[in-house]
Amino acid sequence: MSDARKGELAASLAEVEKRIMAACEAAGRARDEVKLLAVTKTFPALDAALLADLGALDLAENRDQEAGAKAEEVAVLRPDARIRWHMVGSLQRNKAKSVVRWADEVQSVDSERLADALAKATRSALDSGQRDHPLDVLIQVSLDDDPKRGGTRVSEIGRLAERIAHVGDIRLRGLMAVAPLGIDPAEAFEKLARASERLRDDHPNAREISAGMSNDLEQAIAHGSTCVRVGTALLGGRGLASP
Fold this sequence. Notes:
This protein is an alpha/beta fold. It is built from nine helices and nine strands.
């Protein structure tokens, strides 16, 4: 079964790579400017391990409870794989201590209180030896100011960035956003690109733009995305979560 699944994933990965390469070529960008983040949420640890075998070492989850157990299982399945785990879902402050145990990067920081909680949890994990490096973070941006979708308003990015820069133990790497429903993705990603330019004026190391998913990665790459988050196009429809 795993051989057949590996073949499916290999074919899907090749197709996604074709799309990314074509989009980069159309935008006049080098392929290595765009990272592929494989979103393994709801899929079993074996799928994540097989993706690692195929060279997809940046894996993303959106629920801490599922992700923590999955990361541990994958570490047993592939102890030598240099996997980098990313949290891309909404995160409550009370989950900060748990998420820093497995995540290398949190892409969904949308408040100063969450930034503070992550910094505190990271410092504790560093002191106790649970981590050996700071936590990378991205500010999640709301491109339509809908509080239900998560994300900070564009006008609040600067203030949150300053808090992250000064709180310690977490490192600001850039911005993340989802194109809102009912809005042209190209328009949304252009707005995000402008916000990123302004952010880099004061935080030059915050270069990452995480934007674009299975249905709109081409538009995101055309507007400067450095990280596309792909789930369905790689893994298929909703899978079964790891135990």
